[in-house]
Amino acid sequence: MTGANIDTSNQPSYDVIVIGGGAGGLNAALVLARARRTVAVVDSGEPRNAPSAHMHSFLSRDGVPPLTVLEAGRAEISRYGVVRIDGRADQVEAAEAGGYVVRLEGGATLDARHVVLATGLRDELPEIPGVRAMWGEDVHFCPYCHGYEVRDRPIVVLGVHPASPGQALLLRQWSPHIVYVPHSRPLTDEERERMDARGVEVVEGPVSTLLSKDGRLHTVELADGRTVECAGVFLFPAMTPNDGAFDGLGCEKDEQGWLVTDRSGRTSRPGLWAVGNVTDSRAQAVTAAGMGAAAAFALNHDLVDEEIERDLAAHRAAAGRSGASVPMC
Ligand SMILES: Cc1cc2nc3c(=O)[nH]c(=O)nc-3n(C[C@H](O)[C@H](O)[C@H](O)COP(=O)(O)OP(=O)(O)OC[C@H]3O[C@@H](n4cnc5c(N)ncnc54)[C@H](O)[C@@H]3O)c2cc1C
User: Fold this and answer.
1) What is the pLDDT of residues 251-274, one digit of tens each?
2) Which residues have CB under 6 Å of ligand 1?
3) pLDDT (tens digit, 9 = 90+) per residue, 24-69?
């Protein structure tokens, strides 16, 4: 059943349903399956880093295409019997008998004792011609992922977000040739002074288009016709968590609207977990994978605790019936 679109109308209950099959979700599923839990992963197959040809800063996988890494992960979880369902989970609801019902797009439902949300986030890109086409190739946001590839070369940072000036100052670590264009986000005097101090050139915007040749970026063109040649553009997108499946369940969120979890990925509602970019926009792929593993550990412990309580109650009931005395703790 792995990997195929399957008929989910008569699925058995799972210990855990993982929604999202990126690095976070797959690693959670791997650890849970190896803990002999029944696990299903529902995944709509659009990991955030898919536009990039190569993934970096993931030990032992540096420079490997992101989808190759995920294919390997899918094969690994399949070996342990994890059921993979290609599709989208629309909503999670509390089940009357305890646990949760996961409602899939199209109407089928699955039920599980616990649910891990690993659905990542959406990057909202500025509507500048060329940005979307070159996103992940020559237009980036994360210096730790793609800064090294344009080290020492000319880089333009587009000012489109409150974090953009900090991004330009950070990128100075990778190249001495940083140009900051305050496209829609003017600099304060203090920020301008910092740019000067760090040798970041400021070229007043706005930007009209990114120009490419043979699919590769070479120039940023400004609205007044001036141009800045560059090997890479960095911008800080607005980021929105894909957490709609948990709407209505009352999970606590922080002031910015992101799900609050403990260090193991527990949300404020028992049985619901969140890992990776859906709860932490800064998580790189390796971090998301680690969050998935940490949640799987804690989740399995919670299930074992529930099972001990259940077995203890049954044991005491049986002992009571037979008249044997059971030591109470
Ligand atoms: C262009 C780009 C390049 C990057 N390069 C790197 C890099 O080189 N190195 C690095 O470490 N990090 C990189 N990152 C960051 C990396 O993408 C994230 O750290 C990583 O994807 C987070 O993993 P995740 O499992 O939380 O989410 P994702 O990988 O985004 O996976 C989420 C999965 O959930 C699925 N999903 C979403 N909603 C639903 C739903 N309702 N039902 C079912 N499935 C759903 C999605 O289709 C997706 O498959 C890059 C990011 C971008 C944007």
Assistant:
1) 999 999 999 999 999 999 999 999
2) 19-25, 42-49, 51-52, 55-58, 88-89, 118-120, 123, 135-136, 142, 145, 242, 245, 276-277, 283-286, 288
3) 999 999 999 999 999 999 999 999 999 999 999 999 999 999 999 9
Tell me how far apart the alpha carbons of residues 158 and 165 are, in angstroms, rounded to a whole number. Answer: 9
Q: Which atom of ligand 1 is nearest to the CA of 245?
A: 41
Distance of CA 119 to the CA centre of its chain: 6
Distance, CA of 225 to CA of 222 (rounded, Å): 5
- Tracing tokens 């607005």 back to the chain, one arrives at 238
Q: Are 117 and 245 in contact (CB under 8 A)?
A: yes
Position 214, amino acid = D
The owner of tokens 């804690």 is: 298
Ligand 1 centre and the CA of 47: distance in Å? 4
What's the CA-to-centroid distance between 55 and ligand 1, angstroms? 11
Residue 22 CA, ligand 1 centroid: distance in Å: 6
Structure-token pair, residue 225: 């016709």
Element (H, E) at 66: helix 66-79
Residue 129, both tokens: 């011609």
